[in-house]
Amino acid sequence: MLTPKLEPMTDEQYLRYRQRAEAKYAQDIADSGAMPLPEAQEKAREDYERLLPDGLATEGHRLWTAYDGDDEVGMLWLHLEQKSDGLHAFGYDFEVREDLRRKGYGRAIMQTSEQVCRELGVVSIGLNVFGFNLGARALYEQMGYEVTAIKMRKRLQP
To answer: What's the pTM?
Structure first.
């Protein structure tokens, strides 16, 4: 059984993450059909600047690198927020290194993150997943995540 450990992301890891993540997020927005790529790139840049204005030091946000031994296998970004019924977490990003996907690392990182959240007293974890990401959707559903909203559209071709 895989048991990755989560370590706080270093400044160097954050810089590498931020470059690739912002570009990937923009491409995902465009691939979802929500907006054309140029607008998606601007939205991605604005979202990252708004959400992480102080990078790793942004209050309430925690970014981890996941390790299997000394090997970097993925990452996790959670936002923690106190609400009237307790501490809630929202997963802004989660990834497994591309060459390690479909080998159990995603599930293992999610399980480790749930354990960390339990230790912090988190009462729920939320996340967003693009509709076209069927693999991620299946994993989250298998792990007990429930759909709380669905956004739909119909493309009209002239």
So the answer is: 0.90
